[in-house]
Design brief:
Helix content: 10-25%
Shape: elongated
Distance between the termini: 45 Å
CATH architecture of the largest domain: Roll
Structural class: alpha+beta
CATH topology of the largest domain: SH3 type barrels
Number of helices: 4
Number of strands: 10
Low-confidence stretches: 1-12
CATH class of the largest domain: Mainly Beta
Largest sheet: 7 strands, mixed
Radius of gyration: 23 Å
Mean pLDDT: 85
Length: about 200
């Protein structure tokens, strides 16, 4: 796309969304508030960005406004990464409120799935002599309880924080759905321009 071309702004009909304020009743001096999570769609000439929010609205916004009023979910000063204990890291995540962030945590391991897969592998390899049932029993006894699932990196915002060692409900920008972030497995967090890592 050349610098002279412009991305068309998506038009959304009024009936496509729920109104949060009656604009015809607003007068000079009235106050408004808005929390909006935006994805950058394109860059425009003259220091402008086209952004799209979760509801599909697109608009142009100046880089100056972005730099003064927005936090990036994943930008941080690479020279000032802070190390924290697990408790400090979780307390910081719980304090995110409306801010966009990136968090890395281990997904919940479905132990039965892991045992089933490993039992098949052991049985196919002829291990433990008498087959899959014995392999499953052996694996249940030998696998540690704290075996972790795969590492997930999620960009989102807090919906419902839970107690310190629980699982918070987080909106995942990429999947456009709710994920449970297990506080016990948080590895690092980028919040308000700073990266925090587990000691």
């Amino acid at each position: 796309m050349s610098a002279k071309e412009k991305t068309p702004v998506k038009k959304i009909a009024a009936e496509d969304f729920e109104s949060k304020a009656n604009s015809s009743q607003l007068a000079p001096g009235d106050f408004l508030s808005r929390v909006s999570y935006c994805q950058v769609v394109s860059r425009q000439p003259g220091g402008m960005l086209v952004v799209r929010n979760k509801d599909g609205f697109e608009w142009s916004i100046s880089e100056g406004i972005v730099e003064a009023e927005f936090y990036s979910a994943d930008q941080f000063d690479h020279e000032h990464v802070q190390k924290m204990t697990k408790t400090e890291l979780v307390e910081l995540l719980l304090s995110a409120r409306d801010a966009a962030f990136t968090v890395a945590y281990h997904k919940q391991l479905k132990m039965e799935d892991a045992i089933e897969s490993m039992a098949n592998a052991v049985a196919e390899a002829g291990g433990l002599g008498s087959g899959k049932r014995q392999a499953k029993a052996f694996l249940k006894k030998t696998l540690p309880d704290n075996t972790q699932g795969e590492l997930r990196v999620l960009q989102g915002h807090m919906l419902k924080p839970e107690p310190l060692l629980g699982r918070s409900h987080v909106w995942d920008f990429e999947s456009k759905g709710i994920r449970l972030v297990d506080h016990r497995t948080v590895q690092w967090l980028i919040l308000r321009g700073v990266k925090y890592e587990l000691k």
